[in-house]
Amino acid sequence: MTAKTLYDKLWNSHLVRQESDGTALLYIDRHLVHEVTSPQAFEGIKLAGRKLWRTSSILAVADHNVPTTGRAQGIADPISRLQVETLDSNCAEFGVTEFRMSDVRQGIVHVVGPEQGATLPGMTVVCGDSHTSTHGAFAALAFGIGTSEVEHVMATQCLLMKKSKAMQVWVEGTLGRGVTAKDIALAVIGKIGTAGGTGYAIEFAGSAIRALSMEGRMTLCNMAIEAGARAGMVAADDTTINYLKGRPFAPQEPEWEQAVAYWRTLHSDMGAAFDAVVKLDAADIRPQVTWGTSPEMVVAVDGCVPDPEKMSDPVQRAGARRALQYMGLVANTPIAEINIDKVFIGSCTNARIEDMREAAAIAQGKHIAASVKLAMVVPGSGLVKRQAEEEGLDKIFIAAGFEWRDPGCSMCLAMNDDRLSPGERCASTSNRNFEGRQGQGGRTHLVSPGMAAAAAIAGHFVDVSR
Amino acid sequence: MQKFTTLNGLVAPLDRANVDTDAIIPKQFLKSIKRSGFGPNAFDEWRYLDHGEPGMDNSKRVINPEFVLNQARYQGAQILLARENFGCGSSREHAPWALENYGFRAIIAPSFADIFFNNCFKNGLLPIRLPAGQVDALFKAVAAQAGYTLVIDLERQTIGAPDGTVYKFEVEAFRKHCLLNGLDDIGLTLQHVEEIKAYETKRRAAQPWL
Ligand code: SF4
C-alpha cells in the first residue's frame, strides 16, 4: 500500500463517485451557514421545490452584520437587519439549528463551530465563507464555497470538485518569545505569496506546529486561504482529542473511543509524497507586520517599508507603488515608526480565548496611548466572552482604555457599524488588509493580538519579542 | 444557467495583480438577499469618486474618469483582461454575479484564485488561464487599438485575435460540458441519488458518530 497524505485520506473517504475527467462527487459532513452567503441559496431551494438533504448537518449563526454594542436594541441598519431576519426565518422554516443573536453561543461561525465540537477530525466541512479553512486545524477537509455550492450542498449533501495538489508546509523548531501562530501564517504568506498555495491543499506540520494549541492551529489554517489555498490542515493528535472531549456536538461514550481510534489514523503516512514542500525554521520567524494591501506585503517588525523602485518585477513594482500610496507610507520607513489611529483585536483569525489572554497580558496595568482614537476587543463568540470575563480579562482591557464588545465579525470587514474612516490607520488582528476592507480609505496592518495590544499602548508598532 | 458557446466581444484591460473580491464588489452590497442587480456596483470604490451604499441611484453618482472601465472605448466590453491571482479573497459569489451583471462573459488572466474560478462556472462566466507572456501581449494589443475584440470559441478552446493569432486554452471536460449546455449542477448530481444514499449507509456503519 502506498503512503498517503492526510489530504488523500480525507479525500478518499468522502468520494461518492468520479467522472472520467477526475471530477468527483464529494460527500459533505458539516455545513456551516451564515447570513451573507445563504439567502440566495435558500431561495434557490424554495424556487426549485427541493428539500434539504440532511438538515442535521447544518449549523447556522449570524455574524457579519451583528452589532457589537447595544445588541438589545436590535440592528439599526434596515438592510443588515433584513439579512439577519432572513436567516432566522429560513432556519425556522427548514428546521435548521441556529444560534440567534441573543444566544450566548452566537459568534463568528469559524469560532463557534469548533467550540461546539461541530467540527470533528475526518469530516468534510464547508461554509459559504473563504475562512472555512480554519476548521482544517482538526484534521478535517474544510474549505469555503460560493452560494451556488451552498445550495448544492443543501440539496444533495455533496459537491462537485476536483482534487487539489498537496503542499506540505514544514515548520521545525521553537518559536521565540512573543512569536505566535499568526506570525507563522504571515511569514509563510510572505514567503510563498498570496497565490503560492493556489491549486493546493496545505498541510502544516513539523515540531513547531505540533507544539501549537488548537487555537494556534486554527489561526494558522484560517490564513491558508490568504496564501491562496482553499484548505489548510493539521494532523490529529492528543491536543486535538483533548480539545474535543466533552464538547456539545462531539461524540459521547461509547462512540467516543471508536471515534478517537479513527482520528488517530488522520495524519500523513511516513514517506507520503507532496507536490510541493516549503520549509521554515521557527527560530527565524519574527513578529510580523503587513505594510501594504495584500497579506504577502509583510515584513518583520524590526524591518522597514520596502522600496518599490528596488523590485525587479514590473507588476510587483506597480503593485507596491500603488499600495504605498494607498497606505500613505514612504519607502524605507522603519515599521516601528508607523503611528496608528485605531486597534482591532478580533476576527475568526484571532478572537479565541488564547488571543484574548495574549492581548490582555500585554495590556495589563498599562493604558492605550493618547493618540489612539479607539482600541476595541471583540471576542469571537459569546462563550469566549464569558470565559474571558470569568478570568477577569475584560477588566484588564477596560482599565487599559480598550472597548470590550459583543461577539461578531465587526471591523474585520466592517459590514456592521464598526469601521475605519478614510485615511485612518489600524493595527488589526484580522486576516485581510485589502483596500477598503475595514472601511473605505482605511489602512490596515495585520498583526498578532500581542502586537496589536502593544501598538495600542505605544501608539505605534513595537517589537513584543523584546 | 446561461449557456456559453462562442463570444465575439470587446476587451477591457484591468492592469493590476491580486484584484480581490472586496474590490470587485465591496461588502456593503453583500447585504442584499438577492442574486441580481450587482452590476452597477462592480468595482464600486474604483469606479466612482463618492462612497456607494445600497439603494443609491448610481446614475447620479460621480464617476471616476481615471478608472479604465469608465473610458468611452471600453463601454460594452464583454471580455475582461486581468493579471495574476484575479478574484482572490472572500468566497462571495456576489463577485461573479456583479461581473456577469455588468456585462462580462469571460475573463482572461494568467491565474485566478480557486474559489472565484469555481464560482464563475456556476454563473455562465468563463475564466480563461493563459500564460503570462500571452496575457502581456494581449494587454499591449488592447492598448494599441481602440475597439479591440477577441473571438472565444469554447467548443474548440480557442481565442482568435484580429491579427490572426489563435491562442489555445485549457478547460476541464466536465465544466466545459456544463457551460456549453447550460446545465444545472444540482440537477446533474441528483441523477446519482442512489449512490449518495449507498455512501451514507456505508459511512453510518463505519462511523456512527457522524
Ligand atoms: S471574522 Fe472576518 S474573515 Fe472571519 S468570517 Fe467574519 S468577516 Fe470573514
Describe the structure.
The complex is a heterodimer of chains A (466) and B (210). Chain A is of the alpha/beta class. Chain A has helices at 6-12, 39-47, 78-94, 109-116, 147-156, 181-192, 207-210, 214-222, 238-244, 255-263, 314-327, 353-363, 382-390, 393-399, 449-458; strands spanning 15-18, 24-27, 30-33, 58-61, 97-99, 124-127, 141-144, 158-161, 165-172, 200-205, 231-233, 276-281, 288-290, 298-300, 342-345, 374-377, 403-404, 425-428, 443-446. In chain A, 31% of the residues lie in helices and 17% in strands. In chain A, helix 3 (78-94) links the parallel strand 4 and strand 5 (97-99). In chain A, helix 2 crosses helix 5 and helix 6 (181-192) packs parallel to helix 8. The model of chain A has no long low-confidence stretch (mean pLDDT 97). Chain B has 210 residues and is an alpha/beta fold. Chain B has helices spanning 21-24, 44-47, 94-102, 114-121, 132-144, 173-181, 185-189, 193-206; strands at residues 6-13, 79-81, 106-109, 126-129, 149-153, 158-160, 166-168. Chain B has a seven-stranded mixed beta sheet with strand order 4-3-2-1-5-6-7. In chain B, strand 6 (158-160) and strand 7 form a beta hairpin. In chain B, 43% of the residues are buried. The model of chain B has no long low-confidence stretch (mean pLDDT 96). Chains A and B meet through helix 2, helix 3, helix 5, strand 8 and helix 10 of A and helix 4, helix 6, helix 7 and helix 8 of B. The structure holds iron/sulfur cluster (SF4). Iron/sulfur cluster binds at residues 63-64, 108, 110, 129, 131, 347-348, 409, 412-413, 430-431 of chain A.
